[in-house]
């Protein structure tokens, strides 16, 4: 009797390089370090639970039942935006396939000519024109691609991310082209929720103190002090962060570009992505088109692999990644990647001035400290 060979098709997320973790069979994608993300969840859920337990019953009876209802709606929206930001692909660019990488290498060598031994080869840069300005695209030695405009390599996730804004440990993910607006809505609504809880905590303490005295009020609602403290410290940071991102959105700028001063200083040009109009910039960043993920995480790999060899299941992905990141050869079979979003091709396409409005419509990206954003620009002659 012949042995039955059980095979399981591997999905592409299981072979993706980079330092992301996946769950739900590739539907959820996050950075590997998630400790601070859990702290964020704990603080939000914990503080809101105390508010619902100690203040809401009193306020609903003595002020209005709308207070807890609105708090619940705001809380649910905050959590939804947080999870949407944390669990999604921020706009990771697939690495070049070995053949693509070889082709780019050949192109670079042909362009640079032979470099005498001992001399440093010229930097790998391509220039593209965006809104009459020359923008330099740097070559990523890890991903083997020329990064599209505004993309940067996140050293924590080890991926190039399109319109990279920053890597945010509080949401446990990069913030880039595909999740920036959700990140912004998260900071905005969390600021409102914090102000809301803080304000109604004060109202609650004042109303109860009139009836039964300040100290006995605190004794009866021990959560109040904790809530006020958490809200007080969260409030300043969240309102400040929301204000900062509102400012960036109004300029159509990313945190990465702001930190690196890409569009400021004597020898820098103007931001070629800005419409020079606050309303247009805000509309583009917050209401512009959404972009599909180009990773095709749940697509099936071509080859079959025995189940036994993969008995660890999705949990073995960390090991897989640990092996794959050591290799220089890209492992993403991105044959389903739409041509217009393939990084190397996208970089070339962006040289066409007619592509400028869509490029400007991209969401802001930021870089972790070690990343090299290459959006330095020189004035077009
Ligand atoms: Zn890269
Ligand atoms: Zn990252």
UniProtKB/TrEMBL annotation:
Locations listed in the record: Endoplasmic reticulum membrane; Golgi apparatus membrane
Residue span, Palmitoyltransferase DHHC domain: 136-260
Listed EC numbers: 2.3.1.225
Gene Ontology CC terms: endoplasmic reticulum membrane; Golgi membrane
GO MF: protein-cysteine S-palmitoyltransferase activity
GO biological process: protein targeting to membrane
Alphabetical UniProt keywords: Acyltransferase, Endoplasmic reticulum, Golgi apparatus, Lipoprotein, Membrane, Palmitate, Transferase, Transmembrane, Transmembrane helix
Region of interest (Disordered), residue spans: 329-381
Reaction(s) catalysed (UniProt annotation): L-cysteinyl-[protein] + hexadecanoyl-CoA = S-hexadecanoyl-L-cysteinyl-[protein] + CoA
Residue ranges with Low complexity bias: 358-369
InterPro entries cross-referenced by the UniProt entry: Palmitoyltrfase_DHHC, PFA4/ZDH16/20/ERF2-like
Primary localisation category: endoplasmic reticulum
Topology of this chain in the membrane: Multi-pass membrane protein
Residue ranges crossing the lipid bilayer per the database entry: 36-54, 66-83, 182-203, 223-244
EC category: transferase
Domain of life where this protein originates: Eukaryota
Free-text note regarding domains: The DHHC domain is required for palmitoyltransferase activity.
Family assignment from sequence similarity: Belongs to the DHHC palmitoyltransferase family. ERF2/ZDHHC9 subfamily.
Name by which UniProt lists this protein: Palmitoyltransferase
């Amino acid at each position: 009797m012949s042995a039955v060979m059980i095979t399981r098709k591997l999905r592409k997320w299981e072979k993706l390089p980079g330092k992301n973790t996946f769950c739900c069979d590739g539907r959820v994608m996050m950075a590997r370090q998630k400790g601070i993300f859990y702290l964020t969840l704990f603080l939000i859920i914990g503080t809101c639970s105390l508010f619902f337990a100690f203040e809401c019953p009193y306020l609903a009876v003595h002020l209005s039942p709308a207070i807890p209802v609105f708090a619940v709606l705001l809380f649910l929206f905050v959590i939804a935006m947080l999870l949407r930001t944390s669990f999604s692909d921020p706009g990771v660019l697939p690495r070049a396939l070995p053949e693509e990488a070889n082709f780019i290498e050949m192109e670079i060598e042909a362009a640079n000519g032979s470099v005498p031994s001992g001399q440093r080869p010229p930097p790998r840069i391509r220039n593209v024109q965006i809104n009459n300005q020359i923008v330099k695209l740097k070559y990523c030695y890890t991903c083997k691609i020329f990064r599209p405009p505004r993309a940067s390599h996140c050293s924590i996730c080890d991926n190039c991310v399109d319109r990279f804004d920053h890597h945010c440990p509080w949401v446990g993910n990069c913030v880039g082209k595909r999740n920036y607006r959700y990140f912004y809505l998260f900071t905005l609504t969390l600021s409102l929720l914090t102000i809301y809880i803080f304000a109604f905590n004060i109202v609650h303490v004042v109303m109860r103190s009139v009836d039964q005295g300040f100290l006995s009020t605190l004794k009866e609602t021990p959560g109040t002090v904790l809530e006020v403290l958490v809200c007080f410290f969260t409030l300043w940071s969240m309102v400040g962060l929301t204000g900062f991102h509102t400012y960036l959105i109004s300029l159509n700028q990313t945190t990465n570009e702001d930190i690196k001063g890409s569009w400021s200083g004597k020898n820098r040009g103007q931001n070629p992505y800005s419409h020079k109009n606050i309303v247009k910039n805000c509309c583009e960043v917050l209401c512009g088109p959404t972009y599909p993920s180009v990773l095709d995480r749940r697509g099936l790999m071509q080859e079959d692999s025995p189940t036994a060899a993969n008995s660890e299941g999705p949990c073995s992905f960390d090991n897989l990644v640990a092996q794959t990141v050591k290799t220089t050869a890209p492992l993403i079979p991105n044959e389903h990647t739409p041509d217009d979003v393939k990084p190397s091709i996208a970089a070339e396409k962006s040289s066409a001035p007619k592509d400028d409005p869509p490029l400007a419509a991209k969401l802001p990206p930021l870089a972790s400290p070690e990343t090299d954003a290459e959006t330095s620009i020189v004035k077009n002659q």
